[in-house]
Design a protein that fits this description.
single chain; globular
Length: 183
């Protein structure tokens, strides 16, 4: 495949990718995570939750034929385009933005890999431990990380039922946090 078909395939999913990413951001902004679970309401804490829900969404899209990988890439691209804009808006200098976005990209990939390994593990506590390390920055797994792990698993199960046609159109419904917690 040449460069141009890959480029056009990416552009074809750009609008849907931004819409899906926006839904992940809206989910990450739910006050429940900060007020009830004590996720740090900081730039880092918000990045961690946005990254978590973007990962959950990308995970759902990746293996969906025929265009799931391209749509997953569009969500990823939207995330890091947004990170670039946000860094500039908070006053990070132009010369530093690229380096900071790369650091965020590496952090996202590291966390995604940790979550994937934990989700594939037979030990239910592995996801809780990965969340404690990443969301609470090294804190020990406790009831909060266990609760978030359960919520993540319920979000994954819920997203598995989302219709591909809706996702391809940029439409997704995450469970509201209180509903994911109660399930």
């Amino acid at each position: 495949m040449g460069v141009f078909p890959a480029l056009f395939g990416r552009r074809r999913h750009e609008r849907a990718g931004f819409a899906l990413y926006g839904a992940a951001v809206a989910t990450a902004r739910d006050p429940y995570y900060y007020a009830v679970l004590g996720v740090p309401d900081t730039l880092d804490g918000r990045f961690d939750l946005v990254g978590l829900f973007a990962y959950v969404l990308i995970r759902r899209l990746q293996n969906q034929a025929p265009d799931g990988a391209a749509l997953a890439q569009a969500v990823f691209d939207a995330m890091f385009s947004d990170m670039d804009v946000n860094l500039r808006e908070i006053g990070v200098g132009d010369l530093s933005v690229g380096r900071k976005v790369r650091e965020m990209w590496e952090a996202f990939h590291g966390r995604s890999k940790a979550y994937q390994v934990a989700l594939e593990s037979a030990d239910e506590g592995d996801l809780s431990a990965a969340l404690a390390r990443n969301v609470w920055r090294g804190g020990a797994a406790d009831w909060r990380s266990a609760a978030l792990a359960g919520m993540v698993r319920r979000q994954i199960a819920h997203l598995a039922g989302e219709r591909w046609e809706a996702l391809a159109a940029g439409e997704v419904r995450f469970l509201p946090a209180d509903e994911a917690a109660a399930a």
